[in-house]
Amino acid sequence: MSEPISAELLTSDEPVAFVGYADSRPGREQDLRERMLALGDPSRAEPGVLAYEAFVNPARPGSVAFYELYRDGHAVREHLEQPYMRRFFEDSASLLVGDLEIHVLHPLRAQASLTEHQKEEHRG
């Protein structure tokens, strides 16, 4: 993975988002698309998953891009423990070239709140 999912992130009370790519092995492009698409409905049905979408990027053929938004880090942990996610990760070596490319995103509003809190501490 590009950016490991830390234990700290998995216990966060703030919203968590991921963007990234899954790069398919040659000849497995359609299999990867189907598997990524099949993860969508059950993932979106989880109470802590706010968004879970897969995309194609014409500039990056053979890859599936994804965007995921979770209520908090606890929801991420619950998602990763689902049987369908475990099966995907077990099968990933046959589908993917390397690891998933994952980038963790933190909402600006959470960062802005933290900055305001830090400013208040310095004033006090």
Automatic annotation (TrEMBL):
<dbReference type="InterPro" id="IPR011008">
    <property type="entry name" value="Dimeric_a/b-barrel"/>
</dbReference>
<dbReference type="InterPro" id="IPR050744">
    <property type="entry name" value="AI-2_Isomerase_LsrG"/>
</dbReference>
<dbReference type="Pfam" id="PF03992">
    <property type="entry name" value="ABM"/>
</dbReference>
<protein>
    <recommendedName>
        <fullName>ABM domain-containing protein</fullName>
    </recommendedName>
</protein>
<feature type="domain" description="ABM">
    <location>
        <begin position="16"/>
        <end position="104"/>
    </location>
</feature>
<dbReference type="InterPro" id="IPR007138">
    <property type="entry name" value="ABM_dom"/>
</dbReference>
